[in-house]
Every structure is written in structure tokens, then in C-alpha cells.
Design a protein that fits this description.
Elements: H1 21-32, H2 37-54, H3 61-75, H4 91-94, H5 115-127, H6 132-151, H7 159-169
Helix pairs in contact: 1-2, 2-3, 5-6
């Protein structure tokens, strides 16, 4: 609400950089209206000096100057015609989206909760000859499958589901009786506590 005689910030034009305040914004606008480039240049250098004192910084003055000049350009909406001592990159060029980065693994997984590594293990199991090494890898893979099902909160986290998925994702190469699967529980909750006599 704008009342006659009352000048509130809410009724004024929005500041581009609030940190410097409305007075410096008005100085920048006055600088833009000066008729000659020389006058605008001298005025801009004085504004930079004021900006430097307005917001003290722990930065080295040499390192901080490019930032101040960029802020000046930003407050003038890049319309202040002077010779900037540093390169000024327009805001619209800075805001351009970067090029899309292609995902390196383009193979789709039918079941995301098992993850890429388990599907690599399924592939390895398909190619392995029968023997103790494959039997051990089956147990390790089945254990990780069970943990993944539990971690994702699947209601079907049981031996039957794991055995079924093992057969499915190894194209039938691994056929195992669910009773033969042994899952190691990390917290030891499957161990019975002996009663003290």
C-alpha cells in the first residue's frame, strides 16, 4: 500500500544487490546519466572506492577488485558505458546451462534395488563353471540380494524370492533350493542366547 507522503522500500524499485544499499544503487543510476564517458569513468571509480569501504573484506584488495567491478556492472544492468579495468561477463552468459553429461552406464537394469554390481555378479555366475568357487559366489550374491531386499523395505525379502531372482537373472544357470541358502545377519539376531544356569 502506497500512502501520500510516505516512502517505503516496498514501494520502490527492487535492488539488484541489497548488500550495497539503495544509496549506492542511486549513485550508479546517476553515473549512468552523465553525458561523457570520462565523467562516467571518474564517477565509477569513486563508486568502487565507496563500495570497497562499505563492505569490508578479508580478501586481498587486488583479488577483490574484479568482484567490485562486476557488482558495479550488475547494478547498472550492464548498461554503464565505461572502460572496465577487468573483463566483465554478462549475467545472461553466466546463466546458460552447462552441456548435458551423458550417463556412462547406458545399460538399463530390470530391478534397480539390486544395483549394477549385483547384475555384474549375475553375469559372472552365468559364465562360471560348476564348482566350489561358483557355490561360494552364489552364497555371497544371494546374501547381498537379501540385504538389498531388506534395505529397500521389500515385503518379499525371503529365501524363495532370492532363489527365484537368482534363477531369473542368471537365465536359469543358477538353480538352487531355497533351503540351501544361508544368510549371515550382521547384528547376530539369528543366534540363540543361552540361558544362564
Amino acid at each position: 500500500m502506497q500512502l501520500d507522503g510516505l516512502d517505503y522500500n516496498t514501494g520502490r524499485e527492487k535492488l539488484r544487490l541489497k548488500a550495497y544499499g539503495r544509496n549506492i544503487q542511486q549513485l550508479v543510476e546517476s553515473c549512468m546519466s552523465l553525458p561523457t564517458k570520462r565523467e562516467r569513468q571518474l564517477c565509477a571509480e569513486e563508486i568502487i572506492s565507496i563500495m570497497r569501504r562499505t563492505i569490508p573484506s578479508t580478501q586481498n584488495q587486488k583479488d577483490r577488485m574484479p568482484v567490485l567491478w562486476y557488482h558495479l556492472a550488475l547494478m547498472s544492468d550492464f548498461k554503464l558505458d565505461i572502460d572496465y579495468p577487468v573483463e566483465i561477463v554478462r549475467e545472461d552468459k553466466m546463466a546458460t546451462a552447462p552441456d548435458r553429461i551423458e550417463y556412462t552406464n547406458k545399460r538399463r537394469m530390470p530391478i534397480r534395488h539390486y544395483g549394477r554390481l549385483l547384475f555384474e555378479m549375475f553375469q559372472q555366475l552365468k559364465e562360471m563353471p560348476e564348482g566350489p568357487a561358483r557355490d561360494r559366489l552364489v552364497q555371497v550374491t544371494a546374501g547381498q540380494m537379501y540385504r538389498s531386499l531388506v534395505m529397500w523395505g521389500m515385503a518379499t525379502a525371503d529365501k524363495e524370492k532370492v532363489a527365484s531372482d537368482l534363477a531369473r537373472f542368471t537365465d536359469g544357470a543358477i538353480q538352487i533350493d531355497p533351503k540351501d541358502l544361508r544368510f549371515e545377519v550382521a547384528n547376530g539376531s539369528n543366534k540363540r542366547k543361552k540361558k544362564k544356569k
